[in-house]
Amino acid sequence: MNVYDGERMADQLASRGMAAAPKDDADLIVLNTCHIREKAAEKVYSEIGRVGKKRRLAGITPPVIAVAGCVAQAEGAEISRRAPSVDIVVGPQAYHRLPDMIAEVTAGRRALDIDLPGLDKFDALPKKRKSGPTAFLTVQEGCDKFCTYCVVPYTRGAEISRTWAALVDEAKMLVDGGAKEITLLGQNVNAWRGADDKGRDRGLDDLIRAIDRIEGLHRIRYMTSHPADMTDGLIAAHGDVEKLMPYLHLPVQAGSDRILKAMNRSHSRDSYRRILDAVRKIRPDIAVSGDFIVGFPGETDSDFEDTINLVADIRYAQAYSFKYSPRAGTPAATMENQIAPKVMDERLQRLQALLGEQQLAFNRSVIGQQCDILLERKGKYEGQLIGKSPWLQSTHVEVTGLKIGDMARVHINEAGYSSISGEVLMKAAA
Ligand code: SAH
Ligand code: SF4
């Protein structure tokens, strides 16, 4: 979502006559920030320090320095205090105001806007834009779930869905601009709801089916989804919407029901497993991905074993795993029995070793198969292109006569931890 937001900020500034510049030459530097874990938030201050120092050496402006995103939202006042070189602080829902804020700064004032005004920023987007072969489309933002460890409900605000019409239009615009694949985005993307063009109440599966009808689009993905919003309709879509890729990112966080409860996750270990069973029944080859937190307050060895055996049971194709990071203002930060860093390290290592093995096994499981690869970028070597398999694996191929944006039919013959490779058989449908 930060990539999407960053691109939209660039679009907006471009429509005011600004253009991207190398960091050392820029008149404006926008740091788009993440607040989800402490480490991400701290990086922001060291980066501000770096660009700010350069500015002092160069003798004040330019560059104008803007901090955008969730750190700006959560720590607006603190940023101004800790980092006097920052001119603009703009939250994730207010970045359509960036051009005005830049004008304020050039008039000699500091500018701060961390309102959460809903969906205004999307109205300010340019109506036409060029796109690479893959594009993101934010359909929903915010979160009402209040997991006890998480800052998102505070930094991104309440769950709010963009309208059906706006989304179908933007999807068409992306395809017109060159996109072959669209990834629908949201903090809880499957919580999306809205009325369709006939006023009927619709969910994400209906939106996917509407976007599926756009000619020229080849692939649809969505992330991040929440187990509580995994409807029967969405599960069914994995069986019959051809453009919906066989990949599901469904975070579970932990395998122990006791910990899930303390996290205020609205699912249990079993309800999570049942969802994946249902999806796999309909789409047996689906690549399952997840998020995990180790060392949540009160997590015992036996709770952690529950995570390990859940992972062993599910078999993930890919996953993100993190050490629990206490975040000020969240209920978990003041819970008793915070876990020692050393214990968290050990647990994370064990979990990541297992997830790594599973990822390699999944990658190897596609050796010998033929699949379509959407070519996205140049590789390291002459004639090499890198694209994505249906299962979101990075795929290296040697090509002649094919270019970025083409779909290639590929025979997979090698697999490593983080990528696979194969031989192009022919160009697939244009
Ligand atoms: N809405 C999604 C996840 C969005 S946040 C869901 O609930 O499934 C992305 C991931 O960051 C989470 O899934 C979680 O694994 C991780 N995360 C969030 N807060 C964290 C914290 N305080 N410490 C460690 N990891 C955290
Ligand atoms: Fe955070 Fe996801 Fe929980 Fe919302 S559902 S509070 S975004 S982890």
Short description:
The chain is an alpha/beta fold and 430 residues long. It has helices at 2-14, 38-58, 70-82, 98-106, 120-123, 152-155, 164-176, 204-212, 232-240, 257-262, 269-282, 301-314, 341-365, and strands spanning 28-33, 64-69, 88-90, 111-113, 134-138, 140-141, 160-161, 181-185, 193-195, 201-203, 219-223, 247-249, 287-294, 318-323, 370-378, 384-388, 394-398, 407-415, 419-427.
Describe the structure in your own words.
This protein is α/β, with parallel strands linked by helices. The protein folds into three domains: 2-113, Rossmann fold, CATH 3.40.50; 120-365, pyruvate-formate lyase- activating enzyme (Alpha-Beta Horseshoe), CATH 3.80.30.20; 370-427, Beta Barrel (OB fold (Dihydrolipoamide Acetyltransferase, E2P)). The protein has 13 helices and 19 strands. The strands form six sheets. The protein has a five-stranded mixed barrel. A four-stranded parallel sheet has the order 1-2-3-4, sandwiched between helices. Strands 5-8-11 form a three-stranded parallel sheet, covered by helices on one side. Helix 2 links the parallel strand 1 and strand 2 (64-69). Helix 12 runs parallel beside helix 13 (341-365). The longest helix has 25 residues, at 341-365. The protein is globular, with a radius of gyration of 22 Å. It starts with a helix and ends with a strand. The mean pLDDT is 93. Bound molecules: S-adenosyl-L-homocysteine and iron/sulfur cluster (SF4).
